[in-house]
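Predicting holo structure, protoporphyrin IX containing FE bound.
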Amino acid sequence: MGEATGGGPTEYGYLLNTKATCVCSPSCRRKPRLFEPPSHKCAGYAGIITLSFSPRSTMISIGAALAGIVLLWFLRSWYEFEVMKAKLRAIPTVGSSNFFTYPLVALRFMMNGHNMPLLSRMTTQHPNSAFKIRTPITPSGWLVLGTGHQFVEDLRRASTEQLSFFHAAGYILGAPWLNGNRDADTSKPHHFDAVRVSLTRSFPSRFEDIRDEIEASVSDSFGLTQDWNEIVLFKALVSVVTRTSNRLFVGLPLCRDKEFLQILQTLAIKRAVAGNAFQFLPGFLKPHFGRLISPIATAIKQLEPILTPMIRERLKQEEAMGPDWPERPNDLLSWILECAPPHKRTVDDLIFRIIVLNFVSVHTTSVTLTNAIFDLAAHPEYIQPLRDEMEGVIKQNGWSKDAMSKMRKLDSFVKESSRMRGIGSIAMARKVMSDFALSDGTVIPEGCTVAIASRGLHYDPEHYDNPHEFDGYRFLKMRESDEGEEMKHQMISLEHDFLLFGNGRSACPGRFFAVNEAKTIISHIVLNYDIKLPEGATSHPDPRWFSSSYLPNSAAHLVVRKRQ
Ligand code: HEM
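Done. Tokens:
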């Protein structure tokens, strides 16, 4: 048998014992390798492995390999961090710029990434400037934040080849790993146009359905009793929004199917949590954890048996009759198929699109609605004027998209709630795809991530009087006083100092639907229910923040009863 120098094989292990030789015959001097190729057919080959194996040695080997990987990752991250720091030296740093304080910085960002005083101070003291902060949410560890209109304008005008939303948001939300590498080949997935063009054009004609689903789902979630009744508002609204959106996306009876809804509601929460948690994982672990915990992969597996027959049938019909046939459903599948390139017209891909659109729309709309309803309960003096407006407009226009557009007080109220709370502290995150010059001459290097300190802008006294005070009619007054520009201040408008929906070429394509859906849900609640905060509560329940993401207090209660 071959001898093992530097320690016996059973004691030190096959992988560590680099001086060991093959045991097939005394004359064989071959060195065994970490992964032995099958071509080496020595009789003793299997024997080496069997003889050499010991649990302790395997653990040591795995530990050594992992330590090596961590060290390599650490050195690479350090290198990339320092290279980017050098390239960004013209931009002032806020906070630490020392790589070795990373764990502390990551923790601080996680707990305080929405740092209101910092964002406000930078916005008011250094308007129209850029500063950089250390953050775990970008590949280089640096994020360049802009303040002021000019910076928004610079990002807004950039092409998607220069500044990419999908690359930046993908990294921040963990999409390449949690979405199972889908859309990795494109900077703008086709579902974006399905929402921007087809859904927006089609949903006014589906208004009756939407209203019907709101009535049924609110009654199921809120109850319809004469007595006061406490509900967990965020949970109730996630259910209402999932049902209403899916009445439009996939129609009846699926939008009321308990299993289907449960999968989507769990996904909306788990995907948001996983995306946030992923920001703090070292890059080399992301692919592995992504495969292990991907909520999207889980949802795809669970939804396959439910959605596959319906999608197969639709694909067959489209193939036989083309895109224009008399009974063609006016739903999400048709809208996606209108925009899908041939290689994306598959069952698997269509299930993925339905899931992604549920994820991007349900969570954001539920958060916006929860904020607005809690603001209404905290400021009950707005309830009667809003009821009067709703009743008047509906009397003239019926329940319709037009009626929703005419509810100016309501629009202003929901927009003010979103200005103060929103969905996050930064907006318009973009990855710089090639060196990008701002209008003041500052060059942001390729590979860097830029964003707007939107929470600072939303509270900027230059643009908003008494920005810390809730004024439900703020935007109504702006519409009335800004002659000829009254459309500018409605909620769906993309303004430089209101970035709930982002801005520029990648601004949210679902905002027309989202705002109308939210206004219809609030109108239904206000016209049919009395609402108030629970006993003892006097203000909007405290939200939770996780890094730069805003989360409403998901356990907070609202007290409701049938309108008296
Ligand atoms: C109040 C609710 C919503 C809010 C606050 C919101 C907000 C946003 C924001 C901030 C962006 C990124 C824009 C940028 O960086 O410039 C975005 C992207 C997007 N939104 Fe919305 N959104 C909402 C509802 C919806 C709805 C209802 C849909 C679809 C029906 C939708 C579909 C999308 C899509 C497809 C993108 C591109 C990102 C992607 O595909 O991952 N959104 N949204």
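The pocket of protoporphyrin IX containing FE is lined by residues 165, 191-192, 195, 199, 357, 360-361, 364-365, 368, 423, 427-428, 500-504, 506-510, 513-514 (CB under 6 Å).
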